Amino acid sequence: MYIGIAGNIGSGKTTLTGLLAKNFKWEAHYEEADNPYMNDFYNDMQRWSFNLQIYFLNSRYNQILQILKSGKTIIQDRTIYEDAHIFAPNLHDMGLLSTRDFNTYFASFELMSKFIQPPDLLIYLRASVPTLVRNIQKRGRDYESSIRIDYLKRLNERYEAWIAKYDLGKLLIFDVDDMNFTEKPEDLRTIIDRIDGEINGLFKRK
Asked: Which of 90, 129, 190, 193 has its CA 20 to 30 A from that of 105?
């Protein structure tokens, strides 16, 4: 089974991925820590946006192929669908990704999407911009120090529009403004219990 965790930068995806993998004994797949374009992108988004998006597209496509071959239950930190429907279109609308580059990128995504399957369960972490900023500052990654508020706001708007129409599989939404699953066991238990209910339903149908 394939579970994906979706959410804006700083919403807690990576942390929750690890906690859920530990609880359910799932295998976790994270974003690559040594992305060669990340620092350059945040310093000059217009110059490096296409390179970054193509790198993410290839990386996540390879991850999904591994997931499908593994026969294991996998939880993935961010999905390929977020890159295609949120991050790349946002860069295009902001004038940071040319129409030519965006069309090339999206054509590649559409081709890849024919050979993969969406998550059996998508977990969306909804967070306000102040929560995102607080979490980003707390983890202190140098390359994220230049992220602008309006960039996070635009991404949030796109996430909400995408989630409102999401129909690729089962969906759970958690409002993380009102939760602290890293420090409050009861909040983590609430998340686990809701996921457990969905997972049991998925197993029954398979």
From this structure: 129
